[in-house]
Structures are given as structure tokens and as C-alpha cells.
Design a protein that fits this description.
This protein has 9 helices and 12 strands. By secondary structure, the chain is α+β, with helices and mostly antiparallel strands. Among the domains are: 170 residues, PAS domain (Beta-Lactamase), CATH 3.30.450.20; 155 residues, Histidine kinase-like ATPase, C-terminal domain (Heat Shock Protein 90, 2-Layer Sandwich), CATH 3.30.565. A 5-stranded antiparallel beta sheet has the order 2-1-5-4-3, with helices on one face. It has a 5-stranded mixed beta sheet with strand order 7-9-10-12-11, covered by helices on one side. Strands 6-8 form a two-stranded antiparallel sheet. Strand 1 and strand 2 form a beta hairpin. Helix 1 runs antiparallel to helix 2 and helix 1 packs antiparallel against helix 3. The radius of gyration is 62 Å and the shape is elongated. It catalyses: ATP + protein L-histidine = ADP + protein N-phospho-L-histidine. Its main location: membrane. This is histidine kinase. It is an enzyme of class 2 (transferase).
């Protein structure tokens, strides 16, 4: 619970402020005046004592020289009429020790004598002021020679009486001024507080009775007139606003009568539109799945066509070699039957036959290797189970299968992968992911057929496999970086790009392999993708 602030009133604040300022100013003024006055009176006493000491010193020159104590004592008694002087000592300089010794003294009536000050001559050359007395010493000089010293002690009774009287007068004057200021302040605060009270009563009436037609009257104070004018403007605007509010309430009441019917109509229309939108969205999902499957089949068909092209070459060379060998064998048979076969013909037939058989053997082995690679990577993904996959061998087979596609851009493919890195995963999705990434670089990344480089770096860390795929192509446009894995997003529409390649890669990684793929947006040259796959057993 918050603590409530202490309450006060303008009257109290005004009177307190005026009285406080007046008291501070009077106190400061009287204190400074009293201090300066006392300082001046004290200095006058010191000057008077100094003058008396000079007179005594002058008169004592002859009496000290002739050691006439009686004359000096009579002269000192003349100071009885001077109330300021309390004690006077005259010291003579001893001719033997050259030190001051007592010569004569004077003590005022009812004033006890004071000890000799022969040891304080240097200290009292400057006046010393205590609470009740002033002391000083003057040398007696005759023809530039010190003949002795005069010690004089004066009382400060009259100064203290003066100070007490002045303080009493100052206090009386202060109380009188404060009383006068209090009366003036109360008169001022009544002139200021009355209009404010009238404004307060007006506001209470407005707050309690909602009487916004009331208006504040003017006063003789300009600031309060400004406040009253502003308050009147506020009341006028509030009254106008309330009148408009009432009119608006009537209009809203009329509108509410037809609003429910309109809401029901709009709700029915919205429900129908939502149903139509759901049906459209369902059809779009069906079309998308169909297009993705078509893309998969197109990719598989492209790979099959490439493999068929590669296989046709060695098979064609094998057929040509076997046909040539058969023709030569027919010639040898005819020559043998006619019994005109020579040793040179037999030797040439044997040499050519060995060459043709070697050609047939090499090309048949090459076709067998291609078919074996195709069988390893073209397994159906829907029925495929996890198996041990050697990544280095898988990449080598993929590059061999895509050789016809690589011819146009001649990329240099650098693979950083351990030769014995075997993981438990699905070879089909992995093969299709790498194929699609390489195809994406060939179609979208490389603009020329020279200087093209693809880097594939594979590393394992505990139960995670990290694949970094990058090329030095033209990179990914900033307009599609955030949407590169969305379906139908492409910069080569109508030029061979369907916009489903990276979406297919994303689905294969996240759904078939339960991994993750991201585009490294900090890569400045080309494009770089980072793939992370969870692993089972890693050998």
C-alpha cells in the first residue's frame, strides 16, 4: 500500500515561505551588522589603549632615565578618570643584565594587580584580546634607544554591555518586523487564496453534479484569471463533447439494430469462404506432392538416361570389335578351306584378334561397372531401410553416374572425406541430395565452363554428421535467400528450373534422414549449404 503524501494549503505555504525568508534575511542582516559593529568597537578600544600606551611611554622617558618613581606614580594616578584602563606596568632596562625589570605600576580601583609581563614582551607587542580584557606593551624609546616598556591592560565591560544591549534591540526589532510581515502575508494570502477556493468549489460542484454549464468568474489576480479562463474553455469543450456523445449514442443505437443481421450475413459468407479456402489448400497440397513426385521421377529418368548414354558407348565399341573379329575369322576360314592360308595372314589375324578381344573386354567391364554403380544408387527410397553406407564410395559412384551432366561446365569437384567413413543411413536419399545439389550448382551457380569448383567436406562429431557443400558460382540472390527451401522458388523459371529442387532436398533431409539443412548467408563467394544428420553407429 502506497504511503499518502502529507497535505498542506496555499495559506500555510505562503505564510511559512514569507516568514522563513524574512527571518533568514533579518537574521543574516543583523548578524553581519552586529559582527561588524562589535569588530569596529573592539578596534576603537584597541586604538584608544594604544594611544594611552603611547602617551605613557612618552611621559616615562625622563622618569626612567632619572629613575624618578614618585613622579611617575603620581602621573599614572591621573588615569583613575579613565574607566577603560585597569592596570599599567612600567619596566626599566637593567644596566647590568640589560633585561627589563619592574619600575612602577598602576591598578584601577577594585582591580587586582596582575603578574609581571617581563617574559611576554615580544608576545604583547601585538594586542592580545581575551573575553574581558585587552593587553598590549609599548617600548619607551629615547633618542632611538629603548629605555623600558609600558604594559597596559584595559577592560571590556562596556563593550560587553554594548553587545548585550544591541542583541536585545536586534531581537526586539526582529520580532516586530516578523509580526508586521505576518500581518502583511495574511492579507496577501487572503487575496490569493479566496479566488482559488472559489475555483475549488466550482470544480467540486462540476464533479458532483455534472454541472458543465457552470463557469468560473474573474478575479484581480492575472494568473488565476488565466487558470479560470482555461477552466472555462475546458468546461465548454466538455459540454460540447457530451452533447456530441449523446448524439452519437442515438446514432449507434440505430446502427446496432441492423448490426446483428449484418454480422450473421458476414459470418455465413466467411464460413463459406473458409471452406473454399480449405478445399483449395488441400488441392494445392495434392498438386505439390504430385509435382514433387514428378520431380523425383524426372531426376531418376535423367540419371537413367545418363547411365544409358554411358553404357551405350562401351557396348557399341564391344559390338564393333566383335563384328570386326567375326569378319576376319570368316576370311581366315575361307582361306583355310581353299588351302591358301599363309602364315602372315594367320599371324595378322591372331594379332588383330587379341586387340579386338582386349577392346571388347575393357568396354564390357566398363559397362558392368556403370551398371553396378547405377544399381547401388538407384534403390527405391520408399522401401529402403538404413544400411551401412561408405560416403566416399557413394560420392564416387554419384559423380560417375552424373558424368554426362558435368561435361558442359567441367567443374572441379574436391571431396574432403575419410575413405573409411561408414555410417548407418539411407543411401537413396543421400544419393538424391548430392545429385540435386550438384545439379543446382550446374544450372544456377556456374555461368561459364571454366574455373568452376565444387567443394564437399564431410566430418563427424560424436553422434552427428556435418556436410558442407559449396561452389564458387554466382551465389544465391538476396531476394530468395529466406525462401530458398520453399517450393516453386527459382530464378531460372522457363530456363530449366522448376523451383522444387531445394525443396526436395529439404524434405529428404528433414523427413527421410531427420536432419537439418541451412544456407550460410555469410558466404561472400558462391553458395554454401550446411547439412547436419544424426547418426546411429559410426564405424
Amino acid at each position: 500500500m502506497t504511503k499518502q503524501a502529507s497535505k498542506t494549503s496555499i495559506r500555510k505555504v505562503l505564510i511559512s515561505a514569507v516568514m522563513l525568508v524574512t527571518a533568514l534575511c533579518l537574521s543574516l542582516s543583523i548578524s553581519i551588522s552586529t559582527y561588524l559593529d562589535i569588530k569596529e568597537q573592539r578596534q576603537l578600544i584597541i586604538n584608544k589603549l594604544d594611544m594611552i600606551a603611547e602617551i605613557v611611554s612618552f611621559n616615562a622617558q625622563i622618569t626612567l632615565i632619572f629613575e624618578d618613581r614618585k613622579t611617575e606614580e603620581k602621573r599614572l594616578k591621573s588615569f583613575k578618570a579613565v574607566d577603560l584602563v585597569k592596570n599599567i606596568h612600567i619596566y626599566d632596562i637593567d644596566d647590568v643584565t640589560n633585561k627589563p625589570v619592574f619600575f612602577t605600576s598602576y591598578n584601577a580601583s577594585k582591580t587586582p594587580p596582575v603578574p609581571l609581563k617581563v617574559n611576554s614582551i615580544e608576545e604583547l607587542k601585538e594586542p592580545r584580546i581575551t573575553e574581558d580584557y585587552v593587553e598590549l606593551i609599548k617600548p619607551v624609546i629615547y633618542e632611538d634607544k629603548i629605555e623600558g616598556y609600558v604594559y597596559i591592560r584595559g577592560g571590556l565591560e562596556r563593550l560587553n554591555e554594548y553587545i548585550n544591549t544591541k542583541i536585545l534591540v536586534d531581537i526586539t526589532l526582529t520580532l516586530f518586523v516578523l509580526l508586521l510581515v505576518l500581518l502583511v502575508a495574511r492579507g496577501i494570502q487572503r487575496r490569493i487564496a479566496r479566488p482559488i477556493e472559489e475555483l475549488s468549489i466550482l470544480l467540486q460542484d462540476v464533479s458532483k453534479n455534472h454541472n458543465y454549464s457552470a463557469r468560473a468568474s474573474s478575479s484581480h489576480i492575472e494568473e488565476i484569471n488565466i487558470l479560470a479562463s482555461s477552466l472555462n474553455v475546458m468546461l465548454t469543450r466538455t459540454q460540447n463533447q457530451l452533447e456530441r456523445h449523446q448524439a452519437d449514442k442515438l446514432e449507434i443505437k440505430k446502427l446496432n439494430q441492423s448490426l446483428e443481421e449484418k454480422v450473421n450475413q458476414r459470418t455465413i459468407a466467411l464460413r463459406e469462404a473458409n471452406q473454399e479456402l480449405l478445399n483449395t489448400l488441400e488441392r494445392m497440397h495434392q498438386y505439390q506432392n504430385q509435382i514433387v513426385e514428378n520431380e523425383k521421377m524426372a531426376s531418376l529418368g535423367q540419371m537413367v538416361a545418363g547411365v544409358a548414354h554411358e553404357v551405350n558407348t562401351p557396348i557399341g565399341l564391344g559390338v564393333t570389335g566383335s563384328t570386326l573379329l567375326r569378319d576376319k575369322l570368316a576370311d581366315i576360314k575361307v582361306a583355310f578351306e581353299q588351302k591358301n592360308l599363309t602364315s602372315k595372314q594367320l599371324e595378322r589375324f591372331i594379332t588383330d584378334g587379341i586387340e579386338n578381344l582386349d577392346l571388347i573386354y575393357r568396354n564390357l567391364n566398363r559397362a558392368a561397372d556403370l551398371i553396378s554403380s547405377f544399381k547401388r544408387v538407384a534403390v527405391s527410397q520408399d522401401l529402403e531401410l538404413s544400411s551401412d553406407v561408405n560416403l566416399a564410395t557413394l560420392l564416387d559412384n554419384i559423380i560417375k553416374a552424373m558424368k554426362p551432366d558435368l561435361v558442359s561446365k567441367h567443374p572441379t569437384i574436391n571431396i574432403d572425406c575419410q575413405e573409411d567413413l561408414v555410417i548407418s543411413s539411407k543411401a537413396g536419399p543421400l544419393q538424391q541430395i548430392f545429385e540435386q545439389l550438384i545439379s543446382n550448382s550446374l544450372l544456377h551457380g556456374f555461368t561459364s565452363s571454366e574455373g568452376n569448383v565444387i567443394d564437399i567436406k564431410i566430418a563427424k562429431d560424436q553422434n552427428q554428421l556435418t556436410i558442407e557443400y559449396s561452389d564458387n558460382g554466382c551465389g544465391v540472390s538476396s531476394s530468395i535467400k529466406k525462401r530458398i527451401f520453399d517450393p516453386f522458388v527459382t530464378t531460372r523459371r522457363g530456363e530449366g528450373g522448376s523451383g522444387l529442387g531445394m525443396h526436395l532436398v529439404y524434405n529428404l533431409i528433414t523427413q527421410a534422414l531427420h536432419g537439418n539443412i541451412s544456407l550460410d548467408e555469410s558466404c561472400k563467394a558462391g553458395a554454401k549449404f550446411i547439412l547436419t544428420l544424426p547418426l546411429g553407429e559410426v564405424n
